[in-house]
Structures are given as C-alpha cells and as structure tokens.
Amino acid sequence: MNPESPEEQVSCEDCAARRSFLAKISIALSGVIGAMMTLPGVAFVLAPGFKKPKEVWRDIGKPEDFNDEFQLVRYEDPSPLPWAGVTSRSGAWVRMIDNEFTAFSITCRHLGCPVRWVKGPELFMCPCHGGVYYKDGTVAAGPPPEPLHRMQIRVRDGIVEIKTTPVPLTTTPLKPIDV
Amino acid sequence: MNPIKKTWNWIDDRSGYSDYVLPLLKHIVPRDARWWYVFGSATLTAFLVQVLTGICLAMVYVPGGDEAYESLKYITEQAFLGNLLRGMHYYGASAMVMLTVMHMCQVYLHATYKYPRELNWMSGVVLMMVVFGMAFSGQLLRWDDNGVWSVMVAAEMAARAPVVGPWISDFIFGGTVVGGATLTRFFVFHVFIMPAIIFAGIGLHLVFLMRHGVSEMPDPEKPVDPETYQEEYEERLEKTGVPFWPDAMWRDVVFSTFVVAGIVLCAALLGPPALSTPPDPSNIHSNPMPDWYFWWYFTVLSVLPSSMETWIILGAPVFGFLAVLLVPFISNKGHRAPGKRPWAVGVLVFGITSFVVLTIYGYYKPWSPDFGVDPLPESVIGATSGPIHEGGLLVHQKGCLYCHHIDGYGGHRGPVLSDIGQKLTREDITIRIMNGGYNMPSFAGSLSSDDLSNIVDFLLSRNPNQEITNE
C-alpha cells in the first residue's frame, strides 16, 4: 500500500472520522487561542478587586490646629498613583474636645455624597438625597441606613495623624432586611 | 463605453453594490407609516453625531487624574470650535437618549414587537441599556467634582449587592478609593467597549429589520395571527408597498435634518454644560447631580422608604430591564392597534407621566436641605427687637430654614411654617424641636434654653389670624 497514491489521499480526505477529528481539534485550539489572548488581560483588569486595602497614617496637622469645631482635613489616599493629581485626595471631618479627637469620613452612608458640617444646628447634612447626621455621627434624618464612618486619629511626636481607610461602603448583610 | 461608466461597472461588479446594497436600499416597505417611523433612523443619525464629535474630542481629551479636567477646559475655552464640539456631543447625547426612548414608545404603542419581530424589540432593548450606559459614563468623563461623586454613588449602589457588592465597587474605583485608576476605566467603557456593542447591536437590529420587513401601521381589523401573518404581509406589500429609498426614506432624512440642526443650534446657542470645580474627592461643597435624563431615578432614590431601598437599587435595573426585554413574550399575537390595547396605552401614559413628574421633582429636589437659604428679612420676622426678633434670626442660624419654608424663604424638605402658630401650641412646638420627629433631627443637644424659647416665641407669632386681631 502506497500512502502517496492519490486515490488513498482522496478517500482519507473524505472520511468522516478525519473530518470530525479536524473539527474537534480546531474547536479545541480556538479555545486555547482564546484563553491565551484573554486570560492575562482578565487577570490584569480584575486585579484591583483582589488587592488588600492599604491603611496608612497621614499627617493632618498639629494638635493646636484643632478645636471643638469640626473642620475639614484633606489627606492623600493610601495608594496614590503618580498621575492621580487632585483625585488622590480624601477628606474627613475632625474635631478635638479635651484632647479627644473625633473624626468622620465625609462619605454619606446612603449613596456616598459628601456631607457638610453645618455649625448652627450642629448637624452633618448631605446635599444629594437629604441624609442628616448628629455631631456624634448617628443618623438624624433622611435615608442613610448607617451612622457616619468613624476614622482613627493618633498624635505622634506632636503631629496629628489620621488612618486612611477605603471608601466606607454600605453593604447588604446576608440576612433578611428588617422592614 | 465612456471610461467613468467603465470604471463604475468594474467597481459595481467586484463590490456587488447593485446586487447587495441597492436591493437593501430599495426594499419594499408599507406606504402607510408616514411620519411615525422616523425615530429609529434619527437615533442612528444622533449616534453618528456622537461618533464623529467623540472622535474629535478624544484627540485632545486626556483620560487621567487632573489632566482630564484641564484638557476639557482647554477644549471648551481655547481650542478652535472646541466649545461647539463639546456642545454637540452633549446635546447629541440628550438627543440620542430621547430618540431611543421615543422610538421604543412608538414601537410599543403600535405593538410592532409582536410576531415575527420579537428579536427586533429585544435587540433594541439591549441597545437602549447600552445607550443609558453611554449617557452615564459620558457625564462622568466630564471629570469635574460631579464626575467624581457620580463614581462614588455608582460604587455605593453596587456595594449593596449581596456577596459580590464590595468587590464590584473596588472594580469600579480601580482600588478602594476614587483615584488615578478610576477615570481610565470609564473612558475605556465609553470609548471602546460600549460603542463596539452599539455598532454590533445596530448591525443586528438592521439584519432583523431586513429579515422581517418594516411593519405596517396597526389595523384594528387585522390582528396578528402567526399562522397567516407572513403570507398576508407579503401579499399586501406586493400590492401597495413602495421602495424604501426614496419613497419612505425622504421623511427620515427630513426629520434627521431637524435633529442634527437642533443639536448644532443648541450647541452654538446654549453651549456645553459648564465644568464645575476640579475632581477633588475631598471637596465637600460639591452638589452632585446626574444629567437631566437620570433626574427621575435620582428622585426615586430620594423618596423611597429606606426599608425598600436596597431592593429597588438592586432589583429595579435588573427587573426593569427584564420586564421590558420580555414584553414580546407577554403577548406576541393579536391586536396591534392602540385602541384595542387599553392596558398598553395605560402603561405608556403612566410611564411618561411618572417620568415627567419625577424629573421635575429631581430638578427641585425638595428633599435636600437648602444650604444657600437667605436669612428672613425684618418684614417677615415682624419685630425689630425682643424674643420674636431673636427667634427670627435663630431659625436661619440654627438651620431650621434649610428644610422649612416661611413666607417665601427657606427649603422644602419639611412642613411649611408660615402659619405654624395657628396649628400647634407652645408645648407641641417645644417638644417637636427638642425630640425631633418624622425625618426631623432632635435639636435638644444644640439649642440653649434661651434660644429655644426665642425660636418658639417666633414660631408662635407665625399666625395669620393673630395678625388680624392685633390690627
């Protein structure tokens, strides 16, 4: 039997088993091509979601800069990218009474808008959906489901520092919501 | 044969223009639709405006940190015709959102989604969702403080999803906070991913259109019967149909001319939306608002009882999308005429009315404290000294006016207090201020007893009847 003979070749080209094998191998190889093309990219794109949040202490001034009135402090977020510019800033409301510091994230716990401290009525108010908080951060009115996020402050070597945190997200607990 | 004709024949033969493209242009359509069917083609025209102006803007726009804002300022203030192009992209977006929805409303009103055009409808609904995604990401690319807080709100909404919520939020931020990695994500969605889906989706939408033909206007005497529809449709078309180009298409062209002229005119006369302050996530003076087409949703999120909120935030987009997507499966045969489908007309009227009302509320947002209220003038206070005068000044200082309205001054969150002295006693008012109440904070911790008594004196003097008896 001569494998080079043209009739043999033709008959093999036409045989169903060969066709089905070629179809299968083509589909399998296409899958391999797809995986090679996409997997590194998928990992690259999804990586930020798996990164452990970094928490660092940031200098926000000296103790004498603070008093019993809440003031806005600005600090750099925990992992600023070189090109981030002003977008790397974060803010917090800080006050000091008898050397005790109280600090709240400016993020409203309803849907994340920036709350403002309003001096007269001593309330934090949100401009978006009407969330209001007392000076201790608890909810006074409106839709926020949780109190303002408290942030940690420490004084080291005469410098007041705030511990950066991720944006406080209001998540849904895995139990039925009380109605 | 002259050389031009010869060249054309060569191109025609090799490209297949006469064999493939011309029959598409001249396919037979019903003659009775007239002006009803212009919205789909106008949506396509608006999309072309967006593609062309978007490409131009992307030549200058820098999708990163500070530079996005600076490059937008450059486009708006210095670049030749930059202001006009930004304006065209903005009003083009409004036009595209409006026309998409109008197109859908028309198709729904005339039940064109029924047999055999179910997939035409479903591909259109997917396209509409992507158009909404483009509108949201586009307003966000205007990377000012409003853009930053739009991301924040989007991430907070996503975080409500069980289990995967926080992870999605981190994905939206590109980290755990808004920062340098955030804007580029939305840029990629807005410029690469979603336009690609729209191009593909329009292609599919048009393939379905050609496959099933343009529908006729609904006839109350001829309900859709899948058994016989196709045959009868083709028969009628043969008798009364006209070629799409130019018999039907001229109306599309005329309407699209008005649409594009409207976009250019608005851009030239009104200009693009002003940039607010730079994208600083520590700026607490930001007053985030979505663009107008989402004000209705902004309202929904504000007026919901908080117990329902998470269900609505997560459920409404998903179930809303599915409900609209699956409309053809509720009923794909029977009457198409609006007169025979009172429920459908009702749904449409309810939908449009809700949209208008919620949008107006979204604009005024009466649920938000009004941070910019003016103090009461003496003419309203009605006293120049004494407790009533003091109280009249205090209602501004202590923030009462942020939420309450008195004789034309103040916010709208809480009840109007112009005649509160007539409705409540001294004790009632005092208790309400001290303890708070439904959606009102307690002021026990922030008012001295003198301040409280002055405010109550002032509020008791808000009594139209008393004024009459005094005179």
Explain how this protein is built.
The complex is a heterodimer of chains A (179) and B (471). Chain A has 179 residues and is of the alpha+beta class. Chain A folds into 2 domains: 6-47, no CATH class; 57-163, Rieske Iron-sulfur Protein (3-layer Sandwich), CATH 2.102.10.10. Helices cover 22% and strands 26% of the residues of chain A. In chain A, the strands form 3 sheets. Chain A has a 4-stranded antiparallel beta sheet with strand order 5-6-7-8, with no helix packed on it. In chain A, β3 and β4 form a beta hairpin. Chain A is elongated. The mean pLDDT of chain A is 88. By secondary structure, chain B is mainly alpha-helical. Chain B folds into 3 domains: 1-26, no CATH class; 31-364, Cytochrome Bc1 Complex, Chain C (Up-down Bundle); 378-470, Orthogonal Bundle (Cytochrome Bc1 Complex, Chain D, domain 2), CATH 1.10.760. Chains A and B meet through β2 and β3 of A and α4, α7, α8, α12 and α13 of B.
Output the keywords:
heterodimer; A: 179 residues; alpha+beta; Rieske Iron-sulfur Protein; 2 domains; four-stranded antiparallel sheet; three-stranded antiparallel sheet; 2 helices; elongated; B: 471 residues; mainly alpha; Cytochrome Bc1 Complex, Chain C; Cytochrome Bc1 Complex, Chain D, domain 2; 3 domains; two-stranded antiparallel ribbon; two-stranded antiparallel sheet; 66% helix
